[in-house]
Design brief:
The chain is an alpha/beta fold. Helix content is about 45%, strand content about 15%. Strands 3-2-1-4-5-6-7 form a 7-stranded parallel β-sheet, sandwiched between helices. α3 packs parallel to α4 and α4 (about 110-140) packs parallel to α5.
Length: about 260
């Protein structure tokens, strides 16, 4: 059974992997044999995670590369780094995202809305298209976009973010059509509320947390590591017949 999830000799780029869900995904991919590129805006934070992985799973299993997803040039540098260090890219996990605004859509500034759309949709499009050509050559590869159950629902406080995450579902579906004939799979993970710094505004307040968990079947929010298993599945041979899909990991909230 474990061989289905074996990622030995695979190389994965994980954006936003210095903390939270991205960090958990990178650690679990490495645990299953992958070599990983740890990336976020701050190099020292990336190096901390890469060093931890190398210490735990062996030297050379992880490499750090700072990259701001808002910069196309920085993303190309990230891809170049992966190719230089590990000589290939088999898996790309688009996890990094932005949400600079909480409140109704009527109050969002244009630059805030554009930042959300640029960083959560267009940057994914850039990075994926930088990585996919070599996957097409090998007729194998996995693209994973970390979306959100917000893309399935409306919200009075994170509406713009939800719009961007709904677009990520469609980005995955479209690219699954385009790349499927070449053996490249594209899928989304849709987490519910998870205890990360990114979502702190939604769970730190006891009243907000109580509302979020009151009717959830599991009666709690998630932890970053509880999302990582879905990424291991989508990166591995276990999901070889899965593409264009969204795997919801939300403790049952959306049912």
């Amino acid at each position: 059974m474990s061989s289905l999830f074996d990622l030995t000799d695979k190389v994965a780029i994980v954006t936003g992997s210095s903390k939270g869900i991205g960090r958990a995904i990178a650690q679990r991919l490495a645990e299953h044999g992958a070599r990983v590129i740890i990336s976020s805006r701050k190099l020292h934070a990336c190096e901390e995670v890469a060093n931890e992985i190398n210490k735990r799973y062996g030297a050379g299993r992880a490499s750090a590369c700072a990259a701001n997803i808002s910069s196309k040039e920085a993303l190309q540098g990230l891809v170049d780094h992966a190719n230089q260090v590990f000589e290939r890219i088999d898996v790309v996990v688009c996890n990094a995202a932005s949400n600079p605004y909480y409140g109704p859509l009527g109050g969002i500034a244009d630059d805030q809305f554009r930042k959300i759309l640029d960083n959560n949709i267009i940057s994914n499009h850039w990075l994926i298209n930088m990585c996919v050509p070599q996957m097409i050559e090998r007729k194998e590869g996995s693209v994973i976009i970390v979306s959100s159950i917000g893309g399935l629902r409306g919200s009075p406080i994170i509406g713009a973010y939800n719009i961007s995450k709904a677009a990520d579902f469609q980005l995955a579906r479209n690219l699954a059509h385009e790349y499927g004939p070449h053996g490249v799979r594209v899928n989304c993970i849709a987490p519910g509320l998870v205890r990360t710094d990114f979502a702190r505004a939604l769970w730190e307040n006891p009243e907000t947390l109580e509302r979020a968990t009151r009717t959830a079947p599991l009666r709690r929010i998630g932890e970053p590591d509880e999302i990582a298993g879905a990424a291991v599945y989508l990166a591995s041979r276990a999901s070889s017949f899965t593409t264009g899909q969204a795997i919801v990991c939300d403790g049952g909230v959306t049912i």
